Structure formats: C-alpha cells, structure tokens
Amino acid sequence: MDHHPRNRSVNRRNLLGGIGAAATVPVGAAMLGGLGFNRASAADDLSDEANDIIKARELSPEDVTAALETYMPSGRMDDYLMFTSSGHAGQVYVIGVPSMRVYKTIAVFTPEPWQGYGFSEETKAVLAGGNINGKEITHGDTHHIALSETDGNYDGQFCFINEKTHGRIGVIGLHDFATRQIVKNPLLVSEHGGCFVTPNTEYILEADQYPTPLGVGEYAPISEYKEKYRGACCFWKFDREAGQIVPGDSFAIETPPYGHDLADAGKGASDGWAFWNSFNSEMAVGGNMDGNPPLEVGASQRDMDYLHVVNYRKAAELVAAGKTDKLKDFNFIPMQMAIDEGLLYLVPEPKSPHGVDVTPDGKHLVISGKLDPHVTIFSFEKMQAAIAKGGHETDEFGVPILPFEECLEAQVELGLGPLHTQFDNSGYAYTSLFLDSAVARWSPGKDGKWELIEKVPVHYNVGHIAAAHGDTVAPDGTYLVALNKWSVDRFPPVGPLLPQNLQLLDIREGKQMRPLADMPLGFGEPHYAQIIRTDLIDAWDTYPQEEDKVGWNAVTHDWHPQGTRVGDEKIEVNGTDVKVWMTVMRSRFTPDRIEVNQGDTVTIYLTNIESAKDATHGFVMGGQNISLSLEPGETETVTFVADTAGVYPYYCTEFCSALHIEMAGYFLVKPAS
Amino acid sequence: MSTPTVAISAAELCVERRAARSAWRLWPRFSLVVAAILLAVSNLFQFWHLVLNAPQYPGGLRVTLYTHKLVGDVREVDGLNHYIGMMPLNDAASFERSIAMWAIGIFVVLGIMAGLLATRKAAWLALPIVVFPLAFAADLWFWLYRAGNNLDPTAAITIKAFTPAIVGRGVVGQFSTDAMFGLGFWIAIAAAIIALAGLVGRLRTVTDRGA
User: Fold this and answer.
1) CATH of the domain at A657
2) A586 closest CB neighbour out of B57, B73, B79
3) Per-residue pLDDT tens for B67-92?
4) How far is the C-alpha of A49 from the C-alpha of A533, rounded, in Å?
5) Which CATH class is domain B25-204?
6) I want to staple B32 with a disulfide (CB 3.0 to 4.6 A). Which of A11, A452, B66, B114 is the partner?
7) Contacts of A588 (CB under 8 A, 6+ apart)
8) Are residues A208 and A252 in the same domain?
9) Cβ contact A586–B156 (<8 Å)
10) Which residues in chain B touch residue A566, judged by CB atoms under 8 angstroms apart?
11) Does the beta-carbon distance from A659 to B73 stay under 8 Å?
12) Are A109 and A91 in contact, with CB atoms under 8 Å apart?
C-alpha cells in the first residue's frame, strides 16, 4: 500500500510566505494533479488560474496550505485509517486521514442492508450473540474503538467495539472489515468503560456505567442501592488465533457501586494493571420527582471520586487456579476476595473525571478533571509504593484507599472541561477541553516540565480526541482528530438534527497546532476513534479461492460447507423442504428460476464465484425481507418460509456489469389450494 | 601453437593437429545434446502470454500459457468472454497440454540420443526439436482462430468473428489486448536453431574418418 510522505513535491517555505505567487503555485498543482495533468512538474509550472481561485474563494494562506495538506489526487492513498464508533447508530466507520473521507460503514449491532448484515443466516447468528434472554436487539450505542495491539502498538488485525446500552462487545476482523462476533455481558445491564485492550490483546476491558444488581434481570429496590447494587470490572479473554472472545476464560471483579467511566490498560511500567475512573462515589440514585436532588446533582457533591486500580494479572491467576466464583456462568471475583487478594485499590481523584489515559511509557496516568480545570497525573511507581506500605484507610465497603498526595505526580491547569488525553512522539500530551471547545497541548513532564503549551479552538464541544497511534506505546505525532459533538454554524443548514464535526489538526513538532479540515458526519455520533497507519492493515481483495475450493464463510472465516462451484448448482426438494445451491456471477444467477409450493421452507445457499476485485453481487427478493451482499468468493445462506403465493423476481442490487439489469430470476410460489 | 625447438617432428605435429580437428568435429553432436537440454529448460518458462487492459482493470488481466498449463486470470477472462460467446480458455488445446510434458520428454531423450549415438543418421532424431516451436505456434494460432471464429451465436453481445492476434495488439470492446511469446518459447526457438545446425552439421561431415 502506498505510504506517501506528505509535502513530497511542495515547497513549504514558499507556501507560508502569503498569498503571493509562491503560495498560489501548489494549489494549481493540486488541481492539475487531480485532473491527471503532469504532476511531477506542477509545482514549477502553474498558471494564474490558481491565484484567481484563491482570490475568488477568499482563501487565506492558512486555508491554502491546509487544503494542500489534505487534498487527495484520485488514487492517492491516505497515510492513516481512522476507526470511529458511531454512537447510537450501532456501527463503526472507517475514515481516511488526512483526507477525512468516509470509506466504509461496518455494521455491528444494527442490521445494515448495503452489507446484507443481519439478513443472511450467517450474520443473523452474529447479531443473535447479542440477544438478551432471547430477545432480539437491533440497535446499539457504540462508544470506544479498540484496535488489537501487539507489544502495546496497533497490529491491524482486529477491531473491538463496545455497546453501552446493553453491555455488549463486537469483534471485527480487519482482513475483510466485517463483524465476526458479538458477546453479551451476563452481569452488566449497561456499560461504558470498554473497549480497551491489554498490550498484547490478551484481554478486552469493560465495566458497568450505571450500577445495578449484577446480572441481567436481577432486581433490588433502589433503596437498597448500597447493599445490592454493584459495579464490575470485566476482562474478556480474546483468542487471537480463532478471532473470538472466549467467555468461559473471561472474568469480572465486583466493585462498589460508584459508576465507572473510562478505562485504560497499563503498559510498559504498569503492564498487568488496569484503571477505571468513577463518577458517583456519592452513590446518588436520583428521585427528583420525590424531592431528592436530580442524579446529576447528587453525583457531583463530593470533591473527590475514586480511580479504580486493578491488578488483573493476579486476578487472572486466581481464575486459572479455579479459586474464583461463578455468577451467571461468568468467572466472578467477589469484592471481598478482590480486597483480600490485593486486586483492587482506590485512589481519590478530582470530582467526576472522565478519561484516564496511561502515558506511552506506562509510568503515569492522566486523569481528566471534567468538572475540574486540571489534569491530575498519578505516578504508577508511587502508587505501587503506597500499596507496598500498607495500612490503608478503606471506603465503607472495605476497599483500601491509597492517599491522593502519595500517588500524585503533578496537576496541570489546562482549561475548562478536560475530558480525554492523547500523546505524540515528541513527549507532549493533548487533552480535549469540552467547555472551552479547545484542544490543549501540554508537557507531561517533558524535560521536567508540567505545563500548558498552547490551545487551539475547535468547533464545538469536543469530546474524545484521537491522535495517530496516540494511545499506544509509540505515538506517530502527525495528526489529531477532534470529535466535536456540536457543529452549530459550520455547515449548511440541514434541519434541526445537525451533523457531527470531526476536525483534523496538524500536531507535528516544531510548530503551532493548526486545524486542517472539517468533516461533517451526518449518520452517527462518533465517540472514541483510533488512527492506525494504513500499511499495517492487510485487507483482502476478495475472499480466498483455491483451485478446488470456493465459498468462504465470512463469519467463521473458513470454507463454507455449502460453497457451490459452477456446474454443481442444484435444487433439492424434500417434502416441503426446498434447498437451492446457487452460483452468482456476472451476469446471472444459476438457477434463475425456482418454483416452490406455498408453505415450503426454502433455503438458498448463494456463492459468488467471481475472482475479480470489486465484483460484488447483491441478492434481493420482493416480499421476503432479504438483502444480501455477496463479495467475490463468499457464500451466504437465506432461509425463509414461502408463506405467500405469487411470483417474486429476484435480482442483483450491485450494478455489476453491462447486463446488470438482466441479472435476475423468478421465484414462483404456487398457491396451496 | 609455437614450435620452440626443432626437436618436434612433423609427424608429431600432424597428430596433434588432427586431434584438435577431430575434437572440433564433435560440435554437431555436442550441439544436438545442448539443444535437447535447452528444450527441457524451455519448459520451465512461459511460452506465450496475453495481457488485457480495460479502464476497470487498472492492473490489467493476464493469461499466461505454459506448454502444459494455463495460469493467471483465466476465470475472469472466461467470465468476460461468455458475453461474446467465446469458449472457455481451458477448453482450447486441452489435449495438447495434457500430453505436452510426455511429448517434450520424449523429444529431449531423442535429442540426446541424436547426439550420443555413433551413427550419423541418428541425427534425424533431433528433428522434433527443430519442428517443436513452429508446431507450437501453429497450434496456438489454430486455437486462437477457432476460438474467435466459433462464437456462440446466442451470446449476449454479437461481434464479428475474428482471430485474436498471436503477437501484438488487438481490440475487443473496451479491452485492448497485447499478446507476446514468452521466454520459454524463445529458448525453444534457440534449441531449434542449435538442433538444426547440429543436424545439418552432422549430416554434412561425410568425409570425416572414424566418426
């Protein structure tokens, strides 16, 4: 995959000179390049046209350079891919950086007809992994992307996504950018502090957001909140070879009902530990109709909440040794066991923090204040010293509390509403400031300095930020994307529901941070994103095909037992059971006529036998709620009861060829009487 | 060769020269063996290839022919060819490809025998090596002619019968095609020339004694 160094053919010094002739040159270069003109000499050979465009469009020198930084001539590959959650759209998006173009939606928790997700038996089975007590759930609230890691850096193999509403995790394979598994947490009704992966993706972290009695369906009156409601810090075991989460090897640690917020896994110095913030150590339960303070007020009374410090490696050893309990068939470590075994500690942290982010070397933890204008930095080494010292105070549940001062490394005042922190390759940290609508660059102990460097405004209400490899052991220090919750006046009016605004910032060392591009996103609300180098991803052009094998199951990632080769197509009728083995290619379905009797149960195995990149075929049939997307080499199954008599054409929904319209067939259902 | 002293006799000199001459006279037999080996080697390389270029295939499609197999984007080209009713590529010359390895093996053995056997007439055993590349090209042309002139009349797209170019550029629909012989074919040509030379050389050395 192309990995183009930026600015290869553009003289930056000239560019920054102003809207002189020098500055106009490369704009023309970009324009001409896009049209396929002589690209090599464009920087030296420009007309006045570029200048005219700059004047006509009233572009500043900063606009011109920003445009040049992000413009992509046709066929040029982005340096990075950004994976973002989509909020309550229930999906994941893949976006190019720096071009800020959307490349793909990956359906995860929500049926999606373009990809045929949730229509085939194979993908229905994936969605069914997220059923709750048998009930089908067709929406999800995705928040935090976690790319799989090797040695603390992204390896481009898998992407995990949490689902807040129901406490679920989706597993996406990055050979084909498709969802392979959904697991439902049996203990948590809702969650938030996930997904975060351990440095070699042994575990995927997840925790409750709103405490409940543990276990879906368990009931206790809200008056028994302190006694019966609990949180849980969960560790999903991931089997990389199988590409699957293994629930049987996963475990949960019971915690007080403080309401967990974000998390991070330790790395380097802090490897083997995990950290969660909490926001409701007041244990407020609302009741504003009964004369109680609203939950938001009740949960914001104390000056301190608690950082949860979890020794998961030791916990895993207890699980492996069979010393732990089970709850809802899930390996479960009760709070008392966690206390006795030294698995769980609390550290006071300023009021209702949001993000906890481990520095690339793993030595420090950055706690974002949210309601406090500081970021608070804890030292992992100091924490360990405090743990070793012993003799701790405890909270009312008996969990040891490490003294704030003993763990504190520094506090840096950044501005209002610090939420999330990312890092670059030159030792700086970046924190989003929600209330200030800004991103701060600051020094987390670089050259011994703990101080704010600069702030750049973003538009508006920035939530998470994502820098290139910005939460790994080796950040790239090139781009940062601010995921802004409000766009207000940035885009043409499209009615009262506005798009999100993803803003690209240049954070390269040696100059001020600066915005490069705005990207409206009008089909979901991304929360967290991660940005990975494009060349780390090994995406397949088509599904595997071999001399004597065809038909890949994209969910099990193995040969589909019903894969059908040309010449092996057939229709088998067994009483009221009709099975069809169908091949799909430009520009025909074989068979292109299927006749059944009303009431028959029909199963069609469809194999796209194409070998050409991009030769995808769709399959839809009126009246049966069927929409498949068959990628080259893929086999999928549809099963339905032909309950209504009539004649139903089926056809290919992808404009696959010159005879695309002719790529159709007839499904005839003879009336029963 | 210098004659540093007068001690060397005329007779001795004569023997030496004859020995050198008679070694030189072995070249036809030697080249027959070399040709046989070259033919064996040629089989390792492609004999012919066809590249199809069209806007929607930025890297082009490529079909590569060895004496015994057809590799590359065969399925894709077949898929496209069905629109004009052309036969699947693997249906062409399937008999020739199935026996190619055996036939060439026999040609190679015959060529080596041509070089090693004492009788001059044995040189004719190398004739298949001389003829092989010509026969290959003729057979290829025959199948190209057959494929292009027996298009299924019920195909979706009707085009005029044509013979795809065996070498050089052609145009079919949005595709431009480039056909060229490959390294294996050129090695086989070299083998044929060397075998021909050996054959002629062997048959013309009628006055040679003792050979």
Assistant:
1) 2.60.40.420
2) B79
3) 999 999 999 999 999 999 999 999 99
4) 35
5) mainly alpha
6) B114
7) A662, A663
8) yes
9) no
10) none
11) no
12) yes
